[in-house]
Design goal:
196 residues; globular; 2 strands; single chain; 54% helix
């Protein structure tokens, strides 16, 4: 435990990061090691090319969109805190009973709603708060590639938007997106077991 504590102390603001993300001290130490391993040039931050080294992202059809989420607002680098904040969305939700959360405290990054917000932004390519038919089609192309004809993809995109679009504006809002996925176990599907 001593070496874990001493390494945690070398992580800037580690206690604030632990509270914000919900990661244990041991997990933060492991993630810091991974962050430093990805930081090839030892700059203290990661760029897009550093994240492209992650094999699971390289083979994921949405890998580029996930990598984009590390660089909000057009930034070109992410520090350790930003890196861990994104990964916190994939931290499993612990079964802590029906504990009542203090309303003054921010919602945990790995909450159902924050997981849904993260998934929504993977589809909302222009970040206007809506998923258009065109955006749905682009993401579907990434996910299925050449396995489905363009005509089939267009039909799937049309049907998906039409079924989710409750207000008839031709696009899917975040609330419509969340309602469409209300029966899906997002907490499990958007969790990576190693991120406890």
């Amino acid at each position: 435990m001593g070496s874990c504590s001493s390494h945690a102390a070398s992580i800037p603001d580690w206690d604030d990061i632990r509270r914000e993300t919900g990661f244990s001290q041991a997990s933060l130490v492991r993630l810091h090691h991974r962050f430093r391993a990805l930081d090839c040039n030892k700059k203290g931050h990661l760029c897009r090319m550093d994240l492209q080294q992650i094999g699971a992202l390289a083979v994921n059809p949405l890998g580029d969109r996930i990598i984009d989420s590390f660089f909000p607002d057009g930034s070109h680098s992410v520090d350790f805190r930003g890196f861990v904040r994104i990964l916190a969305h994939f931290r499993p939700v612990e079964d802590e009973g029906t504990g009542i959360r203090d309303p003054k405290e921010p919602e945990p990054l790995n909450s159902r709603m924050n997981k849904l917000r993260f998934a929504f932004q993977l589809y909302d390519l222009d970040r206007d708060g809506k998923i258009s038919r065109h955006e749905m089609l682009q993401v579907l192309r990434l996910m299925v590639g050449a396995q489905v004809t363009e005509e089939q993809l267009e039909s799937i995109a049309d049907r998906t938007v039409q079924e989710a679009d409750e207000d008839g504006d031709g696009a899917v809002s975040f609330l419509e997106f969340a309602k469409t996925l209300e029966k899906m176990n997002v907490e499990q599907k958007m969790s990576i077991r190693i991120l406890k």
